[in-house]
Specification:
33% helix; alpha/beta; binds flavin-adenine dinucleotide; FAD/NAD(P)-binding domain; 15 helices
Length: 479
């Protein structure tokens, strides 16, 4: 059915109901700005942090742990869900060469499983790289990791997994990613952490406890969205932005399509968490800039499976480094929260594949992906094919902004295009092309709203969140 176009106007329009969009909307309504319209193309809120329900079972888009160094983010999460936001003791391992290595890596465990010759090789290659310190800063992920761990440990514990996730060789991935995500971590720190333990030795990727909502990551954002709607904002789901208009250095309106009807939304300010490249491609008049086309994304497939037995493995997730299988990770949601599974006699797993849209596995029908995941789990000895009772596939485009070697110049150019529009506030992971976690995205939304409202402390340097601001996992947990 074709409906006549509709026009609405509001003070603030927010694109996206992920942590960033809801963070912005929450801060606006909390400060009395209620003329807010939030749009999302999806039917559920939460973006990449949503929880889908299939046959009564709950599945995130890949497992989502909640961890933040920010006091404020922790407070908001806790206030939003109260008792339903629960601590979980982390158990994660690496599967490599048919063995399970503890993660965080424990030297004794790793050395025993690697065997004496490989352990010696690892120690020698680490000592060799330490001897060669003082070179220019590392440019690639491979250089960065080899320098901090030695070549042998890099090849064993970083290379295959990282290449599965990013789809490009480690010598084509910028060192920015390594230094942002595994900052402060090197072989010496791992050894210190393993032997000495203690809070002061906690490093960012080694956090041993995290929080998780009883009903999945998305429960957080569903609750947050209810608060926002109660506060007076309007949330429009199934509403895809298809056009963005600008004039004289300002955004004027967006067109949103929902069930065959186009709605034009005019606003004084626009907060956008949709992928930056799409945003510019939708712009009228057209903004043609090669830099926009050089932003690249990695896409994601989750194969969700129900297994007909109560216990499968004790980990929340297992990193799968083995090159013989294509999956990168397998998660067990029962080990996050027992409420994720409707029938306690069963177990829900999700198997993750990292892909490029339109290539390879992305083009496979769901049945082939289900069969692949079951085959691979069987091969790894995790479940037998006959034990899998049902399954479904979820596909996400633009799941990961790719920090490929040399992307920085185009990125800086796109940032300047964004900054040239006075009333556009970029927020979030794809909206700022940053490898954000939920807390960074939520914070970007909060701070963008504070900038708009000119609250004390503003203007905040939004582009710096997740680089040098205090939102890393490295420090003490603040509860
Ligand atoms: C596999 C995986 C595992 C992860 N694990 C963790 C974890 O353990 N812990 C953690 O903290 N973080 C994790 N993350 C990161 C986390 O998912 C993101 O940081 C977070 O969801 C980003 O929030 P956001 O609001 O910036 O963007 P998103 O969550 O991507 O939300 C953007 C929203 O914009 C909407 N949108 C896009 N285009 C349009 C359009 N044209 N019109 C209307 N709406 C549009 C989308 O539908 C989406 O809802 C993980 C991510 C992935 C992919």
């Amino acid at each position: 059915m074709i409906y006549p176009p509709q026009q609405i106007s509001c003070e603030c329009c927010v694109i996206g109901t992920g942590p960033a969009g809801l963070g912005a909307a929450l801060e606006l309504v909390n400060h009395g700005t209620t003329s807010v319209v939030v749009v999302d193309k999806n039917s559920r809120v939460g973006g990449l942090s949503r929880t889908d329900i299939m046959g009564g079972q709950r599945f995130d888009v890949g497992p989502h742990r909640f961890f933040s160094k920010s006091k404020e983010v922790n407070r908001i999460w806790r206030e939003t869900l109260g008792e339903d936001f629960r601590p979980v003791s982390r158990m994660t391992r690496i599967f490599y060469r048919n063995k399970y290595f503890q993660y965080p890596i424990k030297p004794l465990d790793a050395l025993t499983k690697l065997g004496s010759i490989e352990s010696l090789e690892a120690a020698l290659s680490y000592l060799f790289t330490r001897g060669r310190r003082g070179e220019e800063p590392a440019k690639t992920f491979e250089e960065w990791t080899t320098r901090n761990f030695g070549r042998k440990l890099y090849e064993t514990f970083f290379k295959t997994y990282t290449e599965k996730v990013w789809g490009i060789p480690c010598d084509q991935i910028g060192a920015e990613w390594a230094s942002q995500r595994i900052k402060g971590l090197n072989a010496l720190e791992v050894i210190k952490n393993a032997f000495l333990g203690g809070r002061s030795n906690r490093i960012r990727t080694l956090v041993e406890q995290f929080d998780y909502p009883a009903l999945g990551a998305g429960q957080m954002y569903e609750a947050m969205c209810e608060r926002i709607a109660r506060g007076g904002a309007e949330v429009r789901l199934n509403s895809r932005v298809v056009r963005v208009r600008r004039r004289d250095g300002r955004m004027t309106s967006i067109d949103v399509e929902r069930e065959g009807r186009t709605t034009t939304i005019t606003a004084r300010a626009f907060f956008s968490s949709m992928p930056l490249a799409h945003f510019f491609r939708m712009m009228e008049p057209v903004t043609r800039d090669e830099a926009v086309d050089r932003l690249r994304y990695r896409d994601h497939i989750t194969v969700n499976l129900m297994v007909g037995r109560p216990f499968v493995f004790p980990d929340q997730w297992i990193y799968v480094h083995s090159p013989e299988v294509q999956m990168a990770r397998v998660a067990n949601y029962k080990n996050f929260s027992e409420k994720m599974v409707a029938d306690p006699g069963k177990t829900s797993l999700s198997v993750e594949y990292f892909v490029f849209h339109g290539q390879g596995l992305w083009n496979e029908p769901d049945e082939s992906l289900l069969a692949l995941a079951v085959r691979e789990l069987d091969r790894m000895g995790i479940v037998k094919a006959g034990e899998v009772e049902s399954g479904c596939v979820a596909r996400e485009t633009e799941a990961y902004p790719v920090y490929y070697l040399g992307y920085g110049e185009s990125y800086e150019r796109v940032k300047s295009l964004v900054d040239s529009m006075a009333n556009l506030l970029p927020i979030g992971r794809a909206g700022m092309h940053k490898y954000n976690n939920q807390d960074h995205s939520l914070m970007s939304g909060l701070l963008a709203a504070r900038n708009y409202l000119k609250l004390p402390g503003s203007p905040y340097a939004l582009w710096d969140i997740n680089i040098d601001a205090e939102y890393h996992e490295g420090g003490r947990r603040e509860r």
